[in-house]
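Q: Could you write out the predicted structure for this multi-component system? I'm mainly interested in how the pieces pack against one another.
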Amino acid sequence: MQYLLDNFFALTITGLTLGAVYALVALGYTLVYGVLRLINFAHSEVFMYGTFACLWIVVFLGGRAGGSLGSVIFWIAMMFVAAMLMSGLIAVLLERFAYRPLRKRNAPPLIALISAIGASFVLSELMGLRQQITGAVGFDTYLRVYVANSRNNTGMPEVFSPQPVFTLFDYQVTNVDIFVIVGAIVLMVILDQFVKRSRLGRGIRAVAMDPEAAALMGVNRDRVIQVTFLVGGVMAGAAAVFYMLKIGITRYDVGFILGVKAFTAAVLGGIGNLRGALLGGFVLGLAENYGSALVGTQWKDVVAFVLLILILLFRPTGLLGESLGKARA
Amino acid sequence: MSTSTTTAGSTVRAPRPGFKERVDSLPRALKIGLWVLFAIFLFLLPMLNIPVITTEGSDFGGVLFTVSTYVLVALGLNIVVGYAGLLDLGYVGFYAIGAYTVGVLSSEHAHLSWIVVVPIAIGAAMLSGVILGAPTLRVRGDYLAIVTLGFGEIVRLCLVNSQWLGGAQGISDIPKPPSLVVFKVPSLDWSGGVPVIDLDTTSTFLKFGISDFVPYYWLALIVIGLVLLFDILVKNSRVGRAWEATREDEDAAELMGVPTFRFKLLAFALGAAIGGLSGALFATKSGFINPQGFELLLSILFLAAVVVGGAGNRWGVIVGAIVVGYFPERFRDFADFRVLVFGLALMLLAIFRPQGLLPPKRTVRAKRADARQAVLEEGEGNA
């Protein structure tokens, strides 16, 4: 208890940065769930590919620590471009090959989950086996920096070194913390406005509300679903950038537990609800940190899941209620 | 529905008789004989050493035991997912509770006999199923999936973090069940191309040792037989029909006077009990358990077994469990690539056999109804 009080602000800030990553990944779950009523189990791999895209682009362009402000901005921009492209691409491919064939055949919902699990295995194993796969075609020595030790942790050169900006009751808030939290909120506002105001956003809401009526009104359902996956993937890419800036280490199976947490965040805020995902992410990040300060860090994940179960028992639709379709038009 | 071919007018019957109908139409004595032969074949399977099927890298008896725990788990999970239609992603939690009850009561903190411990393990798993189910079965289907997923993780993390339960090292020296030596079974040797009875390599019927896993496989087979019998009786009773009604339309079932919540809880508890039983068997065979054996991935593999085989059809889920449990062991040569191949197989299966390898009878029935409907509608359209 004393520990929690002493480190309250440190825990709050780290909880918020972690929560920002959860929130951005949660968006992908929430959007797809809202439109398709489907738990996109493979979304965590979309995030994982984003983290590798960050890493590879920095290695490829020879990133180094301690650059000027201009170079830091350049690196971050590069990471965003690479991660968003990669994650968006993976998400669209996922939709094309794992979900669309099932939709065409009117498969029962449970089988979509199986397909998602299968896709998740395929994606993470492809990354875990990249050394053997490139070795099979003889590129492994040429691409050694990118593919060596593909089952182990890979670290990214630090291009954006954390510098304390100001002190909040003994805790030194770094520029990385601020960037992550503010960045996540800005992206969230952009997405919210996109869904609320743009033509495609209206399509997404229409399909979420009533797919058949939307089709009758001339909404191209397949295209809307594709856009939904793309948007979710791009957000996961952004989450990957923030994750790499804050943590800096990734692995082929990094997505799994993070994906479960992000899904928890989505349910916590009310699945299908964009603002709920943001709130859920931050609440989960904070609760995890406070909880682990109270009962010990090894119980961190237990705290998250117990919180989820409690919320579902007392407020089954999540904190902000469900439904993308019913969001204020 | 009878498909006896005595009447001349049977040619009008449009649908081809399925496997089940053909088996049903055999004389009763022949049927029983076939079943007995099949059971003997299963018992002798580890001794036959049939080429191609037998795994080379790992002990075949052990592999068969693993496959039979998958079968047992799939039968239990089938009650929850297939019959009652509740999506459970944390089934490994019950499996772990069963295994750890055995571990704690027979090695870590007490030294009770195996015969006493296994029923307690089943009871403990069932109780945990009721405790988890009572509050959570009221939430909607998709949420149940995530709540159970959380439950599975909570159980695993509690095992890792609790020193009382052995922590990350787990529990070792779990005693073997009491042996009951009845007879010895020799095995076949195929090295010459023709099978020869090899009297040197034998397995003793129900002598639980540490190097020969075949008796554990036999034990598991017996348990599977009992669970299967139980499953058939329950499914064909009022309870089974109540589950089907609840799964198809919960509101309608409730209006018809089915206490849906109670039946869902019953399904959850029975499923949990069978999960606990298979966990107990697993702990008995391996002799030591640690939290790494109960990862979330296992829950997903269990669910995959049920859905691959065809949720709701007990024979289907057995086939699914064999596929999920056996193929990764058989293709150990491709050890690195097997998860990748497994993932691809799941995706292909989802596309080409969305109802599973052996769809439940209900969907066959529903398909026939659809076909009749289509014929009727077409007739109207043409008229």
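A: Regarding packing and overall arrangement: Chain B has 14 helices and two strands.
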